Structures are given as structure tokens and as C-alpha cells.
Amino acid sequence: MFDISLPALLAQLLVGLINGCFYAILSMGLAIIFGLLNIVNFTHGAQFMMAAFLAWIGFTQLPQLLGPGAQINFWAALVLAPLLVGAVGVAIEKTLLKRLYHLDHLYGLLLTFGIALMMEGGFRYFYGISGVGYEPPEILQGGFDLGFMFLPAYRAFVVVASLTLCLLTWYLFERTRLGALLRAGTENARLLQAFGVNVPVMITLTYGFGVALAGVAGVLAAPVMQINPLMGSNLLNIVFAVVVIGGLGSIMGAIVTGLALGLLEGLAKVFYPEASTVVVFIVMAVVLLTRPAGLFGKEK
């Protein structure tokens, strides 16, 4: 019925796995921010885009302005861009979001949505919407001939790096004292503060960390995707669906669901391309009807 070669199938699954890695990292950041801070962060896609642009600017624009010695390579950008994006997130939290904690979630959603539109508009004004390219580092160019398919080295790196980051983040929040303090802060902030924990600083740093995860995903995506101001908003709908399916606030749910839906999307592109853009939302509808709290969420 389906005349599809094994190399073509595996290549499409690899594309799905790559997308799933980005879904997992982005949705993990959203899950951390919502699960611990109860903020629906609509700027996540714009922050993802911002990090990709920062990597490109550091590699191509800074040398033109300041000389060749100012060039920021991929490895430096993988550290610096998330830190800068996280710092922007901290500034947003300290100046704007903290004023909305006692209000309905809708206010935070509207605020972050407006900020996202402003960020996208700014990058569109300066760089247009046609997009720019970003080469992977020289050491990760080329690939491996596995016999049954060709595996690009950079895409293999993205998978390994993403899975490592996801597992380390899950361990940090679910298996360490810091994670326990963060969860306790969401349950009873006053009691935790009575024990000498600076809860406001902890909240700010947690938000910054969640935003920085979007930054890491943005830098990793830069050599894979066309960098343009809309690259984040194009992913955001799917990422929110991943968070809902996995369970709001569930880090493991975000990781597993992101990877699984990326692979499912890849399979759909092979066997039924017309459904590839909606398969995630079909799954979301089914999950919401059968398990409203999500696959890994806790019923209240």
C-alpha cells in the first residue's frame, strides 16, 4: 500500500526526532514556568527566535562591526545566547510579571503575548521576514554513512545534546533539594520564606532558567531551521499542545510527549502528509477528552 523505502522512512523519522527535541526543550521550559510559577509564558517562542538571531548576529554581524576578533562561534553562542535571553526574561519578570502573580492567569498570558508581538515586530523591522542561514560548526559538518541511511553529524549532536539537557533538567527539578524547595515554594511561599529561603529571588531565577531553555533550543535550531522572526511563533502552537498533552507543569510529560509527537509528526509526513500539520492537535483533543489533566498530569 505504501511504497516507501527504508532510507526515506528513517530520514523522515530523524527529522521528526529533531523537531521532537526542540518541542521537548521548549515545552519543558514552559512546564517549569507554569508548573512552578503559574505563568502562561507566551514570549517563549519569541525568546527561542531571539536566541537564534543572537547566535547569527554574533557570528556574522559582530565581526563586521568590531573586527574578526569579535566573532562569536557556535559553542560560545550556545552558552552566551541562552544567558542573554534568560537575563531578558529575568528583567521581564522583575519589572512586569511579578505585578500579576495575584491576578488571573489570563493577565499574564495577555502581557506575555503582547511582549512576544513586540519582540517579533522589532526583529522583523531590522531583519525582515525572508530569513538568514547559520552554518553548523566545522567539526559537526558532514555525517556518517550507516549503510541504510546517511546521518548528518550536526543532527546527531542535536539529539544527544537535547536528550542530555532534558534528563539533567528533570533530575534537577525532581530529584534534588533545589527542586524540592521550588515545589515547596509553589505550595506555601510564606512558610518557605520563614525558613530563610528568598522566595522572590528563587522565582525570578526559575523563570530565567525556563526562558534560557528556550534560548538553548534556539541556538541548536539555528543551523537546522531558517532563522526568521516568525520561527518561534510557528512552533509555539505545537509546543503548547505538547504541554497540554503531557500535563501542565509536568517536566517528564513535556519531554516524553515532545519527543513522541515529533516522531508521530514525522511518520504522518511519510504516510499521510495532509495530516502532518494537525496530528498533534488531534492527539491533544483525544487526550483532553479522555484525560483532561494530561498524560502525566495529576488530577485535582
How would you characterize this protein structure?
This protein has 300 residues and is mostly helical. It has one domain (19-228). It has 11 helices and 2 strands, in the order H-H-H-H-E-E-H-H-H-H-H-H-H. The chain has helices spanning 6-37, 44-66, 74-95, 105-127, 153-175, 177-187, 189-194, 199-221, 231-246, 251-271, 279-290; strands spanning 143-145, 150-152. Strands 1-2 form a two-stranded antiparallel ribbon. Strand 1 and strand 2 (150-152) form a beta hairpin. Helix 5 (153-175) crosses helix 6 (177-187). The N and C termini lie far apart (45 Å). It is found in: Cell membrane. This is Branched-chain amino acid ABC transporter permease.
Write a concise keyword list for the protein shown above.
transmembrane helix; mainly alpha; transmembrane; 11 helices; membrane; 300 residues; two-stranded antiparallel ribbon
List the helices and strands and how they pair.
Elements: H1 6-37, H2 44-66, H3 74-95, H4 105-127, E1 143-145, E2 150-152, H5 153-175, H6 177-187, H7 189-194, H8 199-221, H9 231-246, H10 251-271, H11 279-290
Antiparallel strand pairs: 1-2
Helix pairs in contact: 1-5, 1-8, 1-9, 1-10, 2-3, 2-4, 2-8, 2-9, 3-8, 5-6, 9-10, 9-11
